[in-house]
Amino acid sequence: MLCSYKLWVQASYPPHLKLLNQNSNIPIPKTKTQFQRKSLDSRIDDIDDDADGSGLRKFALPSHVKSITSTSNPFVKHCLKLKNSSSYRHSHASALVVGTTPIREIYRYKESSQEKTVIDCLLLLENAEIPEGLDTHSCHVVRIGSMVMKKLSGVQSAESIEAIALMRFPTSFLNLTVDQNKSDSQSWFPSTHRILVLDGIQDPGNLGTLIRSAMAFQWFVFIVLKCLHSIIAPDSVLVNTQQDGIFLLPGCCDPFNEKALRASRGASFQLPIVSGSWYHLQTLKDTFNMKMLAGHPDIDGKLKKPFSLSQEFVHSVAHVPSCLVLGSEGRGLSEKSQLKCELVSIPMTGKFESLNVSVAGGIFLYMLQPKN
């Protein structure tokens, strides 16, 4: 199926082509279909060659398009680039959410919080019913073939996935390294009693699981993302003051990564996620007089002895505004986190020296969760 797409790219031509167009009397027979296809293919090349996502800002799918069956369709290529490239996602401030359950959860949460719906386009497998709860939603619905669904979802059996949503980044996402005007730390989170800080979490499955756990236990999250591109849509840096959130430190993977979204079950679209640096984290600490805690196994050779995550310790910090820093899967906490934080370990009777970060994080988040 051939469709024309609105791409916000200014056309430019080499000088010798301009001259040929102006002065040549040689007739060049070309049908309208051939001209449209060539023009469309050249614009797709622009998308594919845009490695860092900086050359393209918007890709609009015409409202009359109701079905896509070809994997070489321009919109499919656009969606694949969103799926595979972090910089491309952030230049467009959009991501793909795969699966009916996370799409429905995000939609219901946005409706209950009276936020604007973030679904730009809902891609449904041929003959699949619109998911319950989304049937009254006025987003653009496009039917796609099984080969397209398989390519976009990344699963072998297309029948296991019936829906994919193209969603704009939530307004609760804030990149402090880009938006220098958001210097007021009091506006970053609706509450600063409990902030989860992720330091170099690189595995998207662990990152998504921690975000999901943070939402379950009502923590706020601060994430410093080394991998994020420096281009963010202007309307994606506002903080919603009715949600929890996360803070990520350098080296973390993208929370809108496909696997991270799958593990979080859509929580990345429901929590305020703040991306910043240790400078921003120090500002937050000083502003709200927060205690800095960091999860660390109780092993020999550390700079200081960690506290044990006991009921007594939990009670001692119950009413103290605190940041909990969790380190990366391989190297653990960064040296700066170890120096600036009070270390806390999970007591274990087994002989393993440490736990997977998402498992340890779940224990910390549960034990230290804010009390009503």
Describe the structure.
- Keywords: Methyltransferase, Transferase.
- It comes from Gossypium trilobum.
- Residues 242-366 form the tRNA/rRNA methyltransferase SpoU type domain.
- InterPro entries: Alpha/beta_knot_MTases (IPR029028), Ribosomal_eL30-like_sf (IPR029064), rRNA_Methyltransferase (IPR051259), SpoU_MeTrfase (IPR001537), tRNA_m1G_MTases_N (IPR029026).
- This is tRNA/rRNA methyltransferase SpoU type domain-containing protein.
- By secondary structure, this protein is α/β, with parallel strands linked by helices.
- The protein has 2 domains: 67-168, Ribosomal protein L30/S12 (60s Ribosomal Protein L30, Chain: A, 2-Layer Sandwich), CATH 3.30.1330.30; 173-227 and 237-368, Alpha/beta knot (3-Layer(aba) Sandwich).
- The protein is built from 12 helices and 16 strands.
- It has helices spanning 15-23, 32-49, 74-84, 86-92, 100-112, 146-153, 204-216, 258-264, 278-288, 311-316, 335-340, 357-367; strands at residues 6-7, 59-60, 67-68, 94-98, 119-125, 140-144, 163-168, 173-175, 194-199, 220-223, 246-249, 273-275, 291-295, 307-308, 322-327, 342-345.
- The strands form 3 sheets. Strands 8, 9, 10, 11, 12, 13, 14, 15 and 16 form a 9-stranded parallel beta sheet that branches. A 5-stranded mixed beta sheet has the order 3-6-5-7-4, sandwiched between helices. A two-stranded antiparallel ribbon has the order 1-2.
- Residues 1-57 and 226-244 have low confidence and may be disordered.
